[in-house]
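Ex. 9. Protein: Galactosylgalactosylxylosylprotein 3-beta-glucuronosyltransferase.
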Amino acid sequence: MRAEQKGKEQLQRRRLREDAIDVSNPHHSHPMFSDESPPFLNPSGPRVASPPRRPNATLPTIYAITPTYSRPVFTAELTRLANTLRQVARLHWILVEDAATRSELVSRFVAGAGLPCTHLHVPTPRRYKRPGLPRATEQRNAGLAWLRQRHQHLPAPQPGVLFFADDDNTYSLELFHEMRTTRKVSVWPVGLVGGRRYERPVVENGKVVGWYTGWRADRPFAIDMAGFAVSLQVILSHPKAVFKRRGSQPGMQESDFLKQITTVEELEPKANNCTKVLVWHTRTEKVNLANEPKYHLDTVNIEV
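Predicted C-alpha cells for Galactosylgalactosylxylosylprotein 3-beta-glucuronosyltransferase:
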C-alpha cells in the first residue's frame, strides 16, 4: 500500500510540474500587443498535453515570428506550421496578425495550438498593400518589439535564437536543431525559391564567400527570409534594427535588416556548410472557390 501511495504522490507531483508552464505576460506598452494565451489549454475542448520540459531546460529558446493574414487557406497554413513547431523543444511562437484587432478565429487557434504562443496584431497601412511592395514589414517589426520589451528588464540575458517562420513554408525538424547553436547570425540553403530548385550561401573553409542565387546576386545578403537565424543577444544589443519601409527596394528587406546587425564575414554556415536543404518555400496554390455561393446556404456555419 505504501508503494502504491508513493507512486500516486509522484504522479501527482509530475502532473503539477507539467501544468506549471511559465509563459509570462509582460506589461505591454504597445496598444496593439495582446495578452498571451495560456499554452497547452483549449477552453473549448480537452487539455492538450505539454511536452516534457525538464530535460530541455538548458536549451536556448527559439523564438519563431510568423506574420499571417486572413485568406481561404489561413487555418490550413497555420495548422501545418503548428504541427511542426509543436515538436520542437523550447520554442515560443510569436504569431502576428495583419489586422487592426485580434480575430476570434486566430485567438481560438492559438488557444488550442498546443505550444507556447503570443498573439499580436498590427495592420499594414493601405498605401503599402500595392503589388510589388514588401509584405509583412509591420508584423515582423511588431514581433521584434515584443521580444525586446519582454527581455529588456530581465537581470541577466537569456539564451535564445530568433527565426522568421513564414506560414507558407515547410520546415524540417533538423533545421531547428541546427539554428539553436547560433552565436550571432547563422545561414543555410532554402529550397524552391528564386526561380531555382534552391538558393544557398557559398562556403569555403567554413566562411560564406558568395551566393548561389537566381536573382540579384549583387545583394549584400542574397538570402531568403527563411534562410537565417539571429541570436537573441544580437537582437537586444541592436535595439534599432528593424525592417524598413522607406528606401527599401523589393526583395531587399533581408539585406537591409542583416546589414544593421552583422557582416558577411561573420555569418555562421549551418546545414553541412550550406549543402543541405532543410526548409522549402512551398507556397499553397490559390484556392478555386468558383462554386462558392454568394450568400451562405448551408444550415450550419463551418470554419475552414
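Check your answer against this statement. The longest helix spans residues 2-19.
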